[in-house]
Every structure is written in structure tokens, then in C-alpha cells.
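Your task
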Amino acid sequence: LERDLKGRHEKINRLEEQSLCCICMDNTANVVLLECNHLIVCHECTTTKQLKQCPVCNNQITRVLKIYHAS
């Protein structure tokens, strides 16, 4: 049981890390970069850093789409 709980906590931690902005590592990634469709940055970083290229694939960013999660 203890090992199962530890495994679940590790999985949750990995999922939380994957959903963080790859630039600031503080906010949740909530912007899709178009045309590459990567969901890796937060709205704050896209506006303050004035991103022109995707940090992952270096494709030119033509538009950004903010994602709203239902609560």
C-alpha cells in the first residue's frame, strides 16, 4: 500500500511538472502556440517575453490561443 501511494505521488508530481510553463516554471501552461500546437507556455510569458518562436521546435508563432480549464 505504501509503495502504491508513493508511485501515485510520483505520477502526480510528473503530471504537474509537465503542465508547468517551460519558461517561468511557475505558472500552468495555458497557451497553445500556433501553428505547431505546443501547449508549453503560460499567457504571462507569451505577453511579457514577446515570443516569436516556439521554445520546443523553433517554428514561427503565428498566433496564440489561450486555454481556459473548466473548474
Notes: The beta strands are 31-34, 38-41, 63-66. The two ends are 30 Å apart (CA to CA). The longest strand covers residues 31-34. The helical segments are 2-18, 43-48.
